[in-house]
Amino acid sequence: MNGNKARVTITVIGGILLGLLVISAGCSSTGGNAPTTAAITTPVTTLPPAATSASLVETTIIPVTTTPPPYQVYTDPTYPLTMDYPAGWVYNQPGNFTMEDYGKMTRNIANFYSPNATQVTYRTFSVDVDPSPGSDLEDYFNHATVALGKTYDPLTVTRHDAMYTVSGYRAYRLDFTKPDNTNEIVVFTITPDNVGYIFTYNAMEDADFQTLMHSVNITSVAAATTNM
Asked: For residue 154, is the peptide bond before it cis, meaning its omega torsion is within 30 degrees of 0?
């Protein structure tokens, strides 16, 4: 009887031990095969500092350049005449009385010379004054034309303009070619003060001639008095 109880006890104890071994083995197996959770590392992006409004504006320094005017102003010290002449040209004021090729004794008050005097394109613009021209511009012009024809024989007239004006005054213009095939333009006018002005250009008409002539301003005391 006691022997049977002992066997039962051993059997129970053995079953308990066997169960504990099975449970222990299961826990050990589960712990060894369980997946390991990897640590997730989030990359850190370093952003540049926020741009300010000042850093977005580019500062550009533009040097200040002075462009010389294309023309200069000439004012005669004796006669009431002002005019423009091209920058780079030079002038002189002889002031001497000479017999001109148009047959009149006049005073040469100003000569303007273009640059590059040795080149073919060299030009001159002269201003003469006749202090006693008479009052008949047409007669004065006809006399001058005859004298030019004698000086440059044969004279080829390329333009004869009796409707020209200088500073608002009636004028006569004569364009011609000399025997040596050079060209010349002569403009005559007589102001209400009975002063004759003669303008001579030793070339054909161009932009410089137009500016020179159109800029001429002659102040007439007699004309100012008449218009009052």
From this structure: yes
In a domain, 78, yes or no: yes
Residue 1 domain-assigned? no
Would you say residue 16 lies in a domain?
no
Beta strands in the chain (DSSP E): 71-75, 81-86, 90-92, 96-99, 105-113, 124-130, 156-166, 169-177, 183-190, 196-201, 217-218
Length of the chain: 228
Tokens 């023309």 found at:
71
The enclosing domain of 205 has a CATH number of 3.40.1000.10
Tally: H helices and E strands in the chain: 5, 11
Domain ranges, residue 99? 71-226
Secondary structure (3-state) at 157 = strand
Burial 18-44 (b: 16+ CB within 10 A, else e): eeeeeeeeeeeeeeeeeeeeeeeeeee
From the list 125, 137, 128, the residue with the least C-alpha distance to 203 is 125
121 in any annotated domain: yes
With CA atoms as reference, report the closest residue to 203 among 127, 109, 124. Answer: 124
Mean pLDDT split into 10-residue runs, the chain, 228 residues: 48 51 47 48 56 58 69 96 95 94 96 81 94 95 97 96 97 97 97 96 95 95 58
**What is the Cα–Cα distance from 99 to 103, expressed in whole angstroms?**
6
Overall number of domains in the chain: 1
